[in-house]
Amino acid sequence: MNKIYSLLLCAVLCCIAGINAFASHVVGGELTYKYISSSGTNHTYQLQFIVYGDCSGAAYSSFASTTAAGINIYNNGVQQGATIDLPRINSESDILISPVCATQLTSTTCSPGGTIVGVKKYTFRGNIVIAGTSANWRFAFNGNLVNGSSAGRTSIIDNVTNIGTMYIGATLNNVGGQNNSPTFTADPTPFFCIGIASSYGLGAVETEGDVLTYSLAPAINDPLGATTVTYNVTPTGGTGPFTITTPLPAVPGTFLFSGTTGQLDFTPAAMTSSTSGANIRECTVVNKVTETRNGVEVGTTYREMMFVLLTNCSNTAPSTPVSGAQNGDLLPSTPSSVQFETCEAQTATFAFDVPVTDAQGDNVTITATNIPAGAVFNVTNNGTPNPTAHFSWILNTVAAGTYQFFITYKDDGCPISSIKTVTYTVYVLPFNGNFQTGSQPPCRDMINGKAWITQPASDTAKYKITWMDPAFNVLRAVNFTNQGDTFKNIASGNYVVEVENYRGCKRKFDVIVDTPTYKAKFEVDSIICVNTNLTFNPNFPNNDFVSWSWDFGNGVTSNMQTPTHQYPYSGHYLIKMIGVTSLGCIDSFQQWVTVDSVMTPEFVLDRNTLCAGEQVHVTPDYGLNPTGVSWDFGDGGTLQTGAVTGMTYAYTTPGTYPVAMTVSYRSCPDITYTKNITISSYPLVDLGNDTALCYRGAPITLANQVVNTGVLYHWNTGATTSSIQATGPGVYSLTATNSADCSTTDSVTIRKDCYVDIPNAFSPNGDGVSDYFFPRSLLSRGVSSFEMSVYNRWGEKVFLTQKIDGRGWDGLYSGKVQPAGVYIYDISVKFKDGTEERYQGNVTLIR
Predict the structure, then answer these.
(1) Torsion angle of alpha carbons 230, 234, 235, 236, nearest 10°?
(2) Could you read off the pLDDT of 338-375 as tens digits, one per residue?
(3) What's the whole-model pTM score?
(4) DSSP label at 400?
(5) Residue 635 vs residues 615, 628, 678, 740: alpha-carbon distances, Å
(6) How far is CA 715 from each of CA 705, 720, 737, 744, rounded to the nearest angstrom?
(7) Which of 19, 277, 382, 734 sits a CA distance of 20 to 30 A from 207?
(8) What is the secondary structure of 174-230 as a DSSP string?
(9) Rounded to whole angstroms, what are the CA distances from 337 to 425, 751, 762?
(10) Which helix (DSSP H) or strand (DSSP E) does residue 614 occupy?
(11) Element (H, E) at 457
């Protein structure tokens, strides 16, 4: 709420009247450093000096125009080189830090005509180089500004005397390595209302894991810090005495300073009078931050600031209680320094809320700095009278250690806003148990599995162990043991085991008890040959078991994991295997195997000796379960067949040949059976050309014109001699048979010769059939002379011819057709062998 009360305004104006009497312009400052790089033994650092100026100071105008600040570098108290001027960073200078509300930004003494106390920040930054290493480096602002002015403290400070010029130092020990000083994330806004609980912090952030401790230190009056201000033991107004560690007037019992967070809590006490007037008090406070690494101090930094204590103001800081803390313990804390304890490596989320209220109903804006990596910070209803800050952090991968972050709560009270920075410290406690979990599945359809958790023998600490189901229902609990624990007789499934140490830190482990996977299994060829080793598939080694029992179905057993076995006899056998796991779980498997006998195949030839070109018939006997047959007939002829019942083959060339049959079987080796066959040639038979034989002529001798040996002859006449005498016409054949029973037959035809055939009728009608009586070319052979006379029934000669090749009588006489009837012929014939014949008879002429 933007409330300006008349009483408060009067008090502020009175303050301003006093402030206008300041002798100088500096109200505070700080010096920090950051390591940049190294080259050989030279090390580059960046120094940053921040000074806070009072806009109403007498020398403020020259101060505001300065362009650089003087820095001295010391090693073991000896200045190294000349003064170094750090240049002013304009973008980070001339910044108002007075905690005024938004409507009063132009009402401070930093603006023309302003009456509210105005303080501005100026930043100077630059690089310096130091040579080598030392435990006693010191960087110091020497009080000089480049424009010739000096950083004089205000002379109205109430808690010290011999005020002098402000000097600020920082130290570095780089013997064990280079270092970065902490940085201050909270701007100093030290305006406090007397009688109202207040707090002040630095917001110091350290990024290298070093340990920070805090203390109150004296303000110094030279760069080396050899001389300091004197604290006012008997200040005007009677509130005191002031010391280095109690530099402020505070209501008794309210002054609290934390050496672990640097937070200062106090309720300003009233002073009856002061250097600057009745309504304002000014006190210088110096904060020192010490950095240690592995127990060795590696640096210090300082901030000096003048606190302004106001009377007659009532704007209280927002109330920032912690609520809803989860998976962590809230330790005793102060309003500006809140501490928690939690445990590392937990999967549950550490979280808390800060529900903010403001007594004046002002709007409160919340910001945070140095939130730990992985943590989540957010604000709901920010910029309202009732915002809530939310912090959450999953610690499953967070290392044990101390983690600090800062939350600033600023209200919009007018004319002076209240700014409260709270340090939150989270102590992540170590869980020092290096536990291992394991499980063993139960037997199938049984509840005899187990899960366990063990700790190293070197870890003698005792832990509470609690077994739970996934819904965190407790199944078993063991109070503080250093022997681990085994949860027996459990089913397959997911389990949670929680281990708690003596600090109360807990860690949960997920343990899975697998469903049993053991399985008896083997695989062998289902068909094998007798006296051959069983071949087991290596993909099924049955490693799930610790003992094995084999039964091969023929009275032989084994207890080997992968046995060997041969069957001497054919048959069908059932192989059984029983496996037992280390837990006593049993499983079995069985498989039938067929054992084949070695066969003795053979074949039978219908003849072992035969003639070339003849087919031999083969009848094989393969035995049982043949899968293929290869034939080799010895003459270059081969054949691939299945298990046929018979086959034929013919040889074209005489000789003796091995016939080989190779039979393949489904499991047993191939077998070859061989038998010889003899192929013989045929005898040669040639009786010569066909011939003719005259009636009552000399016989013709018939004989084989080819010489053969060792053959038998057989004539179709029944004769078995090598030759015969043919006495008449006909077909004569001779068969020659050799010792291989190969036979060849030849034949010859003997026609009749020296003959006439006289027909008994003819029909001279011109149809081309029997048109002439007795055509000699057709009806006679071997005629050398011929005479034929034909007479009718009256004895009259109607035809006469003496031609041996004539066509005969055509049924005409003197060119006239003779009537049908019976005619008489008289024929005289002489043959080429000299014999003579006479034929007389009747012939019928048909019309």
Answers:
(1) -140
(2) 999 998 877 778 999 999 999 999 999 999 999 999 99
(3) 0.56
(4) S
(5) 14, 21, 12, 20
(6) 14, 6, 12, 12
(7) 382
(8) -TTS-----EE-S----EEETTS-EEE---EE-SS--EEEEEEE--BSSTT--SB-E
(9) 8, 154, 164
(10) none
(11) none
Partners of residue 702 on adjacent β-strands: 724
Distances (CA, A) of 811 to 767, 776, 801: 14, 16, 13
pLDDT tens digit sequence for 789-809: 999 999 999 999 998 888 889
In this structure, what DSSP letter does residue 103 have? Answer: G
In sequence order, the 6+-apart residues with CB closer than 8 A to the CB of 785 are: 802, 804, 829, 830
Other beta carbons within 10 angstroms of residue 563's beta carbon come to 17
Are the C-beta atoms of residues 655 and 712 closer than 8 Å to each other?
no
pLDDT averages per 10-residue partition of the chain, 847 residues: 34 34 69 97 97 82 87 96 95 92 88 87 96 97 82 83 91 97 90 89 91 95 93 66 92 92 90 57 93 96 92 87 92 90 83 96 95 96 97 90 93 89 92 86 91 92 94 94 94 94 81 92 93 90 94 96 94 96 91 94 93 93 93 93 91 94 94 95 90 80 89 92 89 91 91 83 90 77 88 92 88 92 92 85 92
Cα dihedral 510→516→517→522 (10° resolution): 160
Q: Are 625 and 526 in contact (CB under 8 A)?
A: no
Q: Which residue, chain included where needed, has tokens 């109903």?
A: 361
Map tokens 């808390």 to a residue: 352
Cα distances (Å, whole numbers) of residue 603 to 413, 464, 661, 662, 679: 122, 87, 8, 11, 18
Q: How far apart are CA 804 and CA 203, in angstroms?
A: 164
Angle, alpha carbons 359-361-365 (nearest 5°): 100
Place of tokens 């609690």: 466
Measuring CA to CA, which residue among 271, 287, 282 is closest to residue 308?
282
**Side-chain half-sphere of 809: how many Cα atoms within 13 Å?**
34
Tokens representing residue 748 in the block: 């010859």
Q: Answer yes or no: are the C-beta atoms of 587 and 520 closer than 8 Å.
A: yes
Write phi, then psi, for 238 (nearest 5 degrees): 85, -5
- What the block records as the tokens of 373 is 């990596």
Cα dihedral 389/395/397/402 (nearest 10) = 80
537-546: long-range pairs with CB below 8 Å, 24+: 542/577, 542/579, 544/517, 544/518, 544/519, 544/579, 544/581, 544/587, 545/518, 545/520, 545/579, 545/580, 545/581, 545/587, 546/580, 546/581, 546/582
What's the rounded Cα separation, in Å, for the pair 189 and 200? 8
Tell which residue, 602, 620, 627, has the closest CA to residue 529: 627
